[in-house]
Write a structure and sequence with these properties.
Length: 641
């Protein structure tokens, strides 16, 4: 910081910074600092400064899909580059080579930025204290403007210097991969013939392990030779060097084996590689190899298994036979369990079972030649863990039976259970689609809830509750056009907080449940507010989180009073008529947070009993219990929840 009387103009400040950075000018020439063991010829300098495009065209700057755990990957997602990447654990201050690559000029700029940021904080405090008494010409305001302008200038200069650093690191990596004589370290492989080259300063910047090697008095320091452990391929070592030089994975990593990269990171204590492999490297092509690697009892690899389980839970449908070849039974079993443990309830269960069955079939075909009869037996054991009864009969006939992995006795039991004419074989086609996605008027969110239909023929209307947008849309069934938008977000009359149930009466008036405000609201055919009723409580006519509603042939309103674990029958003005059911799980006429209700043409009332019941309760028009329908399970007539 300078005393105020010594403040410089913006132009003088620029001159001072550029004077301290003789190699960095407005035209962005890039003379290479040669103290890092890199002495380019004039031709090389011209090629770097003029022939290359922007930095995203340099080697290693291309975006892609993440690093592989086996030799099946593509380009790796590029992280922020340069030796200063905090993810790599590298420090310019710890290495002469890294210092010279970045140059002292950038450190000066960064230090200047730190000082100015502190000054801005002090100025902000002064402005908070005195700002009301100042005008535009007062010194603190002018000083703040000048300081902020200078910070913007230094930030731009910092970006240019960072780009220069990246370009230099890429050029030095090219030297190492080409085994240039300018490199001062030889990386020697087990056969004693194959080798790569590197710069001592870059290795030391990346790892304390390398720093110890080169000050130990051993062969690494005396001869500049580092012996690569057995089992590491040439390609993986190239990928490792790419990370060391650039602080990110790119072209060479895309061809490397992630398991070998993990081992190299462990051996040489290079930060960032393992985190990067776990975050970005688990794909359909690599998940099986990564999981089997995680089961080797060496090092800390539980994080790999966890990442593999997360990937498997999202689905195994993308794994091809080539990805499963050579994978042992235990690995297939564990990842299949991770997938099967998701979505154990709901309409999508049969899809999970179908996907798992097809995964097992591909695993069996991929390994039949490798493991012989054991592969078939393993596949049968895996399939035995599925509840195949959750599959539609059509899939059992087209997928399960032809595979030969399920015995005929089991198949016959399934066919007997379903019968020859199973409801699950009925397929429906889409006749018409209503609405568009969005949050504007006339659009629907992802939270579309319940519907009701009114009228017939050309005048038939469809009401749809959209809790996410806090309104109800009314469509023409024939045209699919929006006729009216009912309500908006709020707590006033005619407004909703997460509307759910809808029902039409014989006049076409629309009833809407507003559970978060414990009330029912009524609107006319045009969507105009008429009245509302209900208040929070457990007494007669009081409501607690009402959801599903329906109108009986007698004109009475049936309300699923979820928070009170009951169903209430009310008149259309909200007057109490009677209560149906009571709080409980598993018994006749008991409910636990009932949700949906429906009314038959004879006045019978059907209630989704919800938790603990696995079915629905049926009552007559007077509210007397008639029967329960459904049982727990995935077969015919059974409910999952």
């Amino acid at each position: 910081r300078r005393p105020r009387e010594q403040k410089q103009s913006q132009g003088e400040m620029e001159e001072e910074v550029n004077a301290g950075s003789p190699g960095i000018k407005r035209g962005f020439e890039m003379p290479i600092n040669t103290t890092a063991g890199f002495a380019p010829t004039a031709t090389t300098h011209k090629r770097m400064a003029l022939d290359r495009g922007p930095t995203d065209e340099l080697p290693g700057a291309k975006l892609g899909n993440g690093p592989p755990w086996s030799l099946q990957g593509t380009y790796i997602e590029t992280r922020s580059g340069g030796l200063g990447n905090s993810a790599t654990g590298m420090s310019r201050e710890s290495s002469p080579g890294a210092q010279s690559a970045a140059g002292p000029d950038r450190e000066m700029v960064l230090e200047e930025l730190r000082i100015l940021e502190m000054q801005c904080v002090e100025l902000a405090q002064r402005l908070d204290e005195e700002g009301e008494e100042m005008d535009e010409d007062d010194e603190p305001l002018q000083e703040a403007k000048q300081t902020r302008a200078y910070i913007r200038h230094l930030e731009e200069l910092n970006k240019r210097l960072q780009t220069t650093t990246d370009v230099r690191c890429v050029a030095m990596l090219e030297q190492a991969l080409a085994q240039s004589p300018n490199c001062d370290v030889k990386l020697l492989f087990e056969d004693g013939q194959t080798h790569l080259s590197a710069h001592r300063g870059m290795l030391c910047a990346a790892s304390e392990e390398f720093r110890c090697m080169f000050r130990s008095g051993m062969v690494e320091e005396r001869q500049g030779v580092v012996k690569i452990p057995p089992g590491i391929s040439l390609q993986s070592m190239k990928g490792f060097l790419e990370w060391v030089y650039l602080g990110r994975g790119a072209r060479e990593n895309s061809l490397s084996d992630g398991r070998e990269m993990w081992l190299l990171a462990e051996m040489y204590d290079v930060g960032g590689i393992q985190e990067w492999l776990v975050d970005s490297g688990i794909t359909d092509a690599s998940v099986m190899a990564a999981y089997e690697f995680s089961q080797v009892p060496e090092g800390e690899r539980a994080v790999i298994a966890t990442a593999c389980f997360r990937h498997a839970a999202r689905g195994l449908g993308g794994l091809e036979e080539s990805h499963l070849k050579g994978v042992h039974y235990n690995a297939a079993h564990d990842l299949l369990q991770a997938r099967s443990s998701t979505n154990q309830a709901g309409a999508g269960v049969w899809r999970v079972v179908k996907e798992g069955f097809q995964f097992v079939e591909r695993w069996w075909r991929a390994n039949e030649g490798t493991f012989g009869p054991e592969a078939r037996e393993g596949a049968k054991k895996l399939v035995a863990g599925f509840d195949i009864a959750k599959l539609p009969v059509k899939l059992i006939r087209s997928v399960v039976e032809p595979s030969g992995l399920v015995d005929q006795e089991t198949l016959q039991e399934l066919y007997t259970l379903y019968g020859t004419k199973s409801i699950y074989e009925v397929e429906y086609s889409i006749m018409r689609t209503f609405g568009t996605h969005g949050c504007e008027a006339g659009q629907l969110s992802d939270d579309v809830c319940l519907v009701a239909v009114d009228g017939s023929g050309p005048n038939q209307r469809l009401a749809v509750t959209d809790p996410g947008n806090h309104h109800v849309l009314i469509f023409s069934v024939e045209t699919g056009e929006v006729i009216a938008t009912v309500g908006s977000e709020g707590k006033e009359a005619g407004e909703f907080l997460w509307p759910m149930g809808v029902a039409f009466n014989s006049r076409g008036d629309l009833f809407v449940s507003d559970p978060h405000q414990d009330r029912i609201q009524v609107f006319d055919c045009a969507g105009r507010y008429i009245r509302g009723f209900g208040q929070e409580g457990s007494g007669r006519g009081q409501l607690s989180y009402p959801t599903g509603i329906a109108i009986t042939p007698k004109g009475e309103l049936v309300v699923a009073d979820g928070g009170n674990h009951r169903v209430q029958v009310l008149r259309q003005d909200g007057t109490f008529v009677r209560t149906i059911g009571e709080d409980g799980e598993g018994g006749e006429a008991t409910f636990s947070n009932p949700g949906g209700v429906a009314v038959g043409s004879d006045g019978s009332i059907v209630v989704a009993a919800h938790r603990g019941h696995h079915g629905v309760h049926v009552f007559d028009d007077s509210g007397h219990f008639v029967r329960s329908i459904g049982s727990q399970g995935g077969g015919k007539g059974a409910c999952l929840s």
